[in-house]
Amino acid sequence: MIEASRIAHSIGITLDRFIKNNQDQFQFASGELSQILRDIALASKVVNREVNKAGLIDIMGPIGTSNMGGESQQKLDILANIRFTRALTKGGEVCALISEETESYVDLNNEGKYVIAIDPLDGSSNIDVNVSIGTIFSVYRRKTPVGMAITERDILQKGSDQVASGYILYGSSTLLVYTTGHGVNGFTYESTLGEYFLSHPNMEIPEDGKMYSINEGLSNSFSEGVKQYLNYCKTNNYSARYIGSLVADFHRNLLKGGIYIYPATTQHVHGKLRLTYECNALAFLIEQAGGKATDGLTRILDIEPKDLHQRTPFLVGSMKMVEKAEQLLNTT
Ligand code: AHG
Ligand code: MN
Ligand code: MN
């Protein structure tokens, strides 16, 4: 008899099934966090469709406005923000939304138990040139009891308070990678079936690597410590890889081993990347995958946020590479 597996390959486990199977790992297993993850996945499919059509319909280029960081907003930044906001506000699980694209947080005035921070579209400068872009998200528990108005305590939470985080990479294939604090798993989107399938189970970053990602064009304004580390990379024949989309650079380093650095510069004296909706999510993921994330002195997940749009220097990646960079940063 011919084995079934020789005729038809197994298509593997769907994201929905995986979330359901692992629901009992959540500290508060009421199904609400599962629903949030499903809502994010759904919105990402819509954004994926729009990203893929970007050259065909009029959704490329700047919209003519700036976000809180003073960066020009692209049409797709706004579109992605709308898609994720709609998906996350319908079910009532989320009480507040923090986004790169909105000045203040959005209080949904409901009994939702979760707060979401999101960078709806990361890598804006790459939208119009067909280079990988992404979405980054963090999920926190509400701290103020249900029934009372949410406060800054709910909004300005430390990264270590995250209950889930992840990213979607719109690349040569579309991938959703997430953690709920029990390891990291990645799912590839099969667009003809409209489903994410588990493709990268139990992701772990190599302990060491040979790739460094930094915008070296800005090196005149780097600190001596950062310059020393870059010298160290070159002396050791490391390869430079910089896409300019944090999600894409992060993902490559997660798979291959490497370090991503966005240090303080003259233009961005506190670094460019945002703690609440960029760095915390990736710091949680990298620690879950066996790597490290720091601002050079402090573990990213331990930083107490003071402002929604706060920036931080960011070093993230393979444990040994981040440790070496920290060592040079702190002795120079
Ligand atoms: P965003 O598109 O969400 O504003 O993020 C852009 C970020 C990040 O994705 C990327 O790594 C970095 O900006 C690139 O900055 P430089 O162009 O200064 O290198
Ligand atoms: Mn970003
Ligand atoms: Mn963005």
How many domains, in number, for the residues?
2
Name the beta content range.
Answer: 15-25%
C-alpha end-to-end distance: 69 Å
| Radius of gyration from the alpha-carbon trace, in angstroms | 20 Å
Number of strands: 15
- How would you name the CATH homologous superfamily of the largest domain? Fructose-1,6-Bisphosphatase, subunit A, domain 1
**CATH hierarchy class name of the largest domain:** Alpha Beta
**Main sheet?**
8 strands, mixed
Spatial order of strands in the largest sheet: 4-3-5-6-7-8-9-10
Query: Quick one: overall form?
Result: globular
How would you state the average pLDDT, rounded?
93
The poorly predicted ranges are none
Distinct compounds present: 2,5-anhydro-1,6-di-O-phosphono-D-glucitol, manganese (II) ion
Task: Count the DSSP helices.
Answer: 9
Element order: H for helix, E for strand: HHHEEHEEEEHEEEEEHEHEHEEH
Q: Looking at CATH, which topology of the largest domain would you report?
A: Fructose-1,6-Bisphosphatase, Chain A, domain 1
How much helix is in the residues?
Answer: 25-40%
Structural topology:
Blueprint: H1 4-7, H2 15-21, H3 32-52, E1 62-66, E2 72-74, H4 75-89, E3 94-99, E4 106-107, E5 114-122, E6 133-141, H5 152-155, E7 162-170, E8 174-179, E9 184-190, E10 195-200, E11 211-213, H6 224-235, E12 239-240, H7 246-256, E13 259-262, H8 275-288, E14 292-294, E15 314-317, H9 319-331
Parallel strand pairs: 3-5, 11-12, 11-13
Antiparallel strand pairs: 1-2, 3-4, 5-6, 6-7, 7-8, 8-9, 9-10, 13-15, 14-15
The chain binds 2,5-anhydro-1,6-di-O-phosphono-D-glucitol and manganese (II) ion (2 copies).
One manganese (II) ion binds next to strand 5.
